[in-house]
Amino acid sequence: DVDYEIESDLELVVEIVDKLGGIDLDINGEMLNYTGNQIKEILEKNTDDMLERQIIKCIIKKVGNNGFTKKDFLTIIEKSETNLTVPDCYDWDKYIQKLCKNAVFVN
Hints:
Layout: E1 6-7, H1 10-19, E2 23-27, E3 30-34, H2 36-45, H3 49-66, H4 70-78, E4 81-82, H5 86-89, H6 96-101
Antiparallel strand pairs: 1-4, 2-3
Helix pairs in contact: 1-2
């Protein structure tokens, strides 16, 4: 079951990717670091679900390396349509880095 849903435009993705210092993404066999605006442009032109999944994996990997602060969760809540509240995620900053480091992707 899904406990929380977040719906947003690509501007939130831009902000998250930039907060993380960009993401390393392999496109056409070339690994480059992309900014939030570059990821937005890729997603606007994208018709490939695999590329979207790769971007999501890269973001999760970067959160696993860098962590995420209470302020970052607040930004998500304020800039999206979500049922997530501050009390829900108040202590998540303590656990999100380890959780993302141990993420396993299926399909």
